[in-house]
Amino acid sequence: MPEAANGNGSTSTDTPRTLDTRPHEPIVNPYQSKYPDPASNVSKFKIIESTLREGEQFANAFFDTAKKIEIARALDNLGVDYLELTSPAASEQSRQDCIAIANLGLKAKILTHIRCHMDDARIAVETGVDGLDVVIGTSSYLREFSHGKDMDYITAKAIEVITFIKSKGLEVRFSTEDSFRSDLVDLLSIYKAVDKLGVTRVGIADTVGCANPRQVYELIRTLRSVVNCDIECHFHNDTGCAIANAYAALEAGATHIDTSVLGIGERNGITPLGGLLARMYVGDKDYVMNKYNLHAIRDVENLVAEAVDVQVPFNNYITGYCAFTHKAGIHAKAILNNPSTYEILKPEDFGMTRYVSIGHRLTGWNAVKNRVEQLNLDLTDDDTKAVTAKIKELADVRPLSLDDVDTLLRKYHEAKSDGSHHRVLVETDHPNKLAVA
Ligand SMILES: [Zn+2]
């Protein structure tokens, strides 16, 4: 690692900061429609956070009760609307954990996720949760190879389970599984039927991660014209579309998006919470900033990453160690003049720090000048250009640490008092000579 970047978000003391504190300009997108779309929920979506359900299906995940409670509280502090928990029918401990979290008195509503089965529903309604997310497979694959039931059976079962849950005064969501490989007529008929029964939400689930944003938009738009209730969406990320699909779904009229921290879940997981918030911040900054505690993202991610024994990826949305690192000289110059030139997300809004990397051969003298000002050294622009040329020459041998750069700048500055500064540049003919200074 050439320099101490803001690894995992921590602010290292030698991190150069820009002196420019002007606020970002409003986010302007020339492709955005000038006319508001009444069906779009980009400015009024809700998050159903499923780290404690979908996330438990991640290969590495095992959360004991204390860890589940810690994660639940952290997500509640971040401001997610719902927490979805593993089915209490899965195991005795899962049932007890469900009761414990439902009784924490969190602001977020608590849901648990069950199969469309009366046995599961009877156990779940006794746990104290606010609602049940009911799911059943409708794709031809699941009907043939998983539960082997036809649509008439599925519809009858759905009506029985939904009627029971509603009689207990709880929220109920009815979702199909593998919705994008299910027959459209089957889907719309069953959603129409459960909407008439008064479900709180219907759910569309891309269980295998096969859908693309255009398919999502078309299906949700069609569904929106068929049901009056809310629409929840669940997108797996097998082909990298989980965030884009969530956004397309909200534009088409979906109301709720399922997420998990760092996207953990079955296989390679679902829409990541942090990535969705980054996307939605660009969609409607005021809504996202007023509703969610964006400074909490990093801590929640670190908490979950540690719990499941993974690193936060280097290129993670918002919190990846290079998410706000600017390297190329031309970028650094523009960023120093106005951060909006190369940043759509304002790092301060997420409790993060911008970092301008300067000890490499792509550096530029404007970035080095910024460092000179931070160190309060008295160097002219010509001096800075001369040192920048030396940094590039040395960085052709190996990248320099920030300490290396600072040493060179200080040596040069000191030598100016007796006029020997040019000699400093000549004598420093290898990066290792900086380390011993
Ligand atoms: Zn899933």
From TrEMBL:
**Is Isomerase there in the keyword field?**
no
What Pfam families would the database entry show? HCS_D2 (PF22617), HMGL-like (PF00682)
What is this enzyme's class at the first EC digit? Answer: transferase
A GO molecular function for this record?
metal ion binding
Organism lineage reads as: Eukaryota, Fungi, Fungi incertae sedis, Mucoromycota, Mucoromycotina
Requisite cofactors: Mn(2+); Mg(2+)
Question: What Gene Ontology terms describe where this protein resides (cellular component)?
Answer: mitochondrion
Species name: Jimgerdemannia flammicorona
Matching entries from InterPro entries are given as: 2-IPM_HCS-like, AIPM/Hcit_synth_CS, Aldolase_TIM, DRE_TIM_HCS_fun_bact, Homocitrate_synth, LeuA/HCS_post-cat, PYR_CT
Q: Which UniProt keywords apply?
A: Amino-acid biosynthesis, Lysine biosynthesis, Magnesium, Manganese, Metal-binding, Transferase
Which pathway features in its UniProt record? Amino-acid biosynthesis; L-lysine biosynthesis via AAA pathway; L-alpha-aminoadipate from 2-oxoglutarate: step 1/5
State the reactions this protein catalyses: acetyl-CoA + 2-oxoglutarate + H2O = (2R)-homocitrate + CoA + H(+)
The entry assigns this protein to a family as follows: Belongs to the alpha-IPM synthase/homocitrate synthase family. Homocitrate synthase LYS20/LYS21 subfamily.
Q: Which GO terms describe its biological process?
A: lysine biosynthetic process via aminoadipic acid
Specify the protein name.
Answer: homocitrate synthase
Q: What is its EC number?
A: 2.3.3.14
